[in-house]
Amino acid sequence: MNRYWFKLALVSLFAPFFLASASYLPNQQEQPTAAELKYSRVHSLGSGYTFDPRDGWQTVNISDLSYKYSPRRVHKVTKTSAPKTWYKNLADPVKTTIKNVFKGLEGIGKAEDVTITWYTGHDLLNPSCWKESVWAPTDNSFACALTLEGWTPKPECFQFLELCHGTERCVFVRVVDTCAGCAKGSKHVDLTKRAFSELADLAQGVLTVKMRRATEPLEWAETLWGPKMKN
């Protein structure tokens, strides 16, 4: 009986300390919004789809060209994938049909071939489409920077683009910055790591893909694209 009361006394003595320490435990990771889940997925146009210029397609290049960066910013490409986040908890690849999922966000206009690359770190800071630094993309955003000079006419700031590596791997990104290091006159789209990795392995480096302009989505995800412009 004495042992029982002794244990009860110990519990009563230390219980407040356990309750106090519990309040310092980290909260569960913030859950993604419906829009973030929807627009961070690769989508498919279907195996029988044909890239017709009349549907707005262009060919562009993507890469990790070293001339864009100072020596301290050259990215050493390895076979490892992008950092794991809640985005990566989605099935990989996650393929969905545009009509059912991407309501309000669809490709339009003339298509062309472009080069794509990926950028990270300090290069993400201070995107030039805003006069003041109000937002900067992260590695998990779906944003891009375009050639600074010589690409005419090129997509404007805050426009959405649809990029496709074949018909089975397509993503939507928003123009938020310019790429001063991209070759003058080139049709070059510099992507965040997450957007690039949905189209190809980061180790692939340089890639030519199809691009066309896209409409704005009906649902907004600031973590993916930055603040929405006011009308």
UniProtKB/TrEMBL annotation:
Record key words, sorted: Signal
Domain of life according to the entry: Eukaryota
SUPFAM superfamilies per the UniProt record, alphabetical: Barwin-like endoglucanases
Signal peptide: 1-22
Record-given protein name: RlpA-like protein double-psi beta-barrel domain-containing protein
